[in-house]
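Input record, target 12 of the design panel.
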């Protein structure tokens, strides 16, 4: 005899089991149709990182080219400025000598007139200016051998003054052209730095972590620090470019005693190594820092926009910010110097390249 109570109980036990079994089958089938968890996502991130790095490398190459051109223009500008200053000194000396000879000849004319030699005065009255007079054939034929040396010296000085004035005008035009070019190159560098910064700021942390250390694993607000390499950090923690401009000509006859690292205003500057920071200001350096490294070496950070730390600091710690104080107006960069064992400055370029790999 069929037991309805027992059959109802059997269905009550069987239906939930069937439902669970069905759910397991559905989940299993969905699992088969879906790709392995995160596989495509990781692949996409790597591809994004590769593309970003290609863009960054392209921007960096362009930055390096522009920075090299800027340094060349600065050197040419300094050379032209030195030529202008030297020319002005020589021109002033020639003009002073010309005035002296002019005075001597004027006295000679007065003496000739007093002696009754009116022919020289007649020639003078026929001339519009002293230069025409001094080049007058009639006067040269009458003045005699006694004053020939004076006449020739004066004529040579006139020619020299004309030449130097023309050279000075050309040099000033060249200086203005280089100065205009310098402003354009500085703007181009700032534009490329901003492009690089914007590109890195627009990527997420996962893509940023896949980038090479050349870009500090930057982006997404993560650290820009490059290093440590042999315990040393690159002194600018942000997009930058630089060339080997050690010894390049600079204004007032100076040569460059460091390496200029181009970067945007306010880019953090970090301690290349642990040590003691002393803040200073004044002169061509503007706001600057001495970092007495625990390794025994001394490092200079110049043209800062502001300070961030003083006293004891650790390697990689922010100690200042890139600016254009001192004689760097309009061209934000860090002038970086390396003084091994606290002595004279040596070329820091090889050291910077070794860190900034």
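The sequence produced for target 12 reads:
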């Amino acid at each position: 005899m069929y037991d309805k109570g027992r059959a109802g109980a059997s269905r009550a036990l069987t239906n939930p089991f069937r439902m669970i079994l069905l759910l397991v089958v559905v989940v299993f089938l969905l699992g088969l149709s879906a790709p392995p968890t995160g596989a495509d996502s990781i692949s996409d991130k790597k591809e994004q990182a590769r593309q970003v790095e290609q863009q960054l490398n392209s921007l960096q190459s362009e930055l390096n080219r522009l920075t090299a051109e800027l340094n060349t223009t600065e050197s040419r500008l300094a050379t032209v400025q030195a030529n202008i200053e030297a020319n002005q000194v020589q021109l002033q000396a020639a003009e002073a000598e010309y005035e002296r000879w002019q005075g001597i000849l004027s006295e000679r004319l007065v003496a000739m007139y007093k002696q009754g030699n009116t022919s020289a005065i007649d020639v003078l009255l026929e001339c519009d200016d002293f230069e025409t007079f001094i080049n007058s054939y009639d006067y040269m034929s009458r003045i005699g051998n006694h004053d020939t040396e004076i006449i020739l010296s004066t004529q040579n000085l006139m020619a020299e003054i004309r030449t130097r004035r023309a050279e000075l005008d050309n040099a000033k035009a060249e200086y203005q052209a280089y100065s205009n070019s310098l402003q354009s190159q500085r703007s181009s560098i700032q534009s490329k730095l901003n492009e690089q910064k914007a590109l890195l700021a627009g990527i997420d942390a996962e893509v940023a972590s896949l980038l090479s250390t050349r870009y500090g694993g930057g982006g997404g607000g993560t650290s820009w620090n490059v290093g440590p390499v042999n315990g040393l950090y690159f002194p600018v923690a942000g997009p930058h470019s630089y060339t080997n401009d050690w010894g390049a000509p600079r204004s007032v006859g100076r040569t460059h005693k460091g390496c200029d690292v181009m970067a945007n205003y306010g880019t953090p500057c970090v301690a290349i190594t642990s040590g003691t920071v002393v803040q200073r200001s004044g002169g061509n350096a503007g706001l600057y820092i001495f970092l007495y490294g625990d390794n025994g070496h001394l490092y200079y950070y110049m043209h800062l926009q502001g300070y961030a730390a003083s006293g004891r600091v650790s390697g990689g710690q922010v100690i200042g910010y890139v600016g254009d104080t001192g004689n760097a107006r309009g061209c934000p960069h860090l002038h970086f110097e390396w003084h091994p064992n606290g002595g004279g400055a040596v070329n820091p370029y090889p050291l910077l390249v070794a860190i900034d790999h």
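Confidence is low (pLDDT under 50) at residues 4-13, 24-35, 218-222.
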